[in-house]
Amino acid sequence: MLCLNTTIPPTTLTSSPSLDECKLCYVNRDTLFSYHKDSERFLQKLIAILVASHYKNSPNDLQIMSDAPAHHIFCLCAPSGENESKAKEMALPEVLCVLQVCLEGKISEKTVKHELSRGKRGAGDLIPWVISQEFDQENFPSLSGARIVRIATHPDYQGKGYGLLTLKLLQDFYEEKFYVKEDLSSVTMNPVVYDDTEIMDVDMEEKLESQASLPALLPPLNKLRPDRLDYLGVSYGLSQELLRF
């Protein structure tokens, strides 16, 4: 349940995919945590990559990923053509990189002045508070931003440019380079309807009726209207390797 026994599954790829063929995907969290059998397998893939890439993980990380309102999950997926002829259980896309984003900012001037006068700062919103305190920029917290909380590349594909590509595509997404404004259906996600017989039989006291009709796990980016941002940033402990990246 808490994904504590996750291990990196064997890759279904015969070689490292070309960077030009990989695509950024947005992960619908309602579907990801719906207990559907395919969603469960995909969740295991994501968590396995995160656990393999960071020394400190806890169930709290999974809880934040699942229901924190300001958090979003993206992943870089390999082209699916190579897997189309494989068995159904291998039909999920190969995940090369996982990225967790948290929306920050839009803090009122009154709140900023009140917190700074007390020598404290509110919970969360790491970048706005650091910039405001360290650089005496009281107006910065009012801006809208996104902080990359975690980014992790599959151990078998590290050092090959997939992480950098994921960051580039994420920036393109928030710059609305994927979003099709002329498409009137872009404001909503096209749902994928599953038959009741396909829903995983979970031993629970109450049946989750919402499983009968789930949104697409990986909705197309051109159908998603991104939040308007003023900046995209990170807040990490700096190392030489991380700075080079």
From TrEMBL:
Task: State a single Gene Ontology molecular function.
Answer: 18S rRNA cytidine N-acetyltransferase activity
One GO BP on record is: rRNA acetylation involved in maturation of SSU-rRNA
Q: Which InterPro entries match?
A: Acyl_CoA_acyltransferase, GNAT_dom, TmcA/NAT10/Kre33
Identify the residues that the record assigns to the N-acetyltransferase domain, covering every copy. 45-245
GO CC annotation terms, alphabetical: 90S preribosome; nucleolus
The protein's matches in Gene3D superfamilies, at most eight in alphabetical order, are given as: 3.40.630.30
Give me the segments passing through the membrane. none
Q: What is this protein called?
A: RNA cytidine acetyltransferase
What is the organism field in this record? Caerostris extrusa (Bark spider)
- Tell me the lineage of the source organism: Eukaryota, Metazoa, Ecdysozoa, Arthropoda, Chelicerata
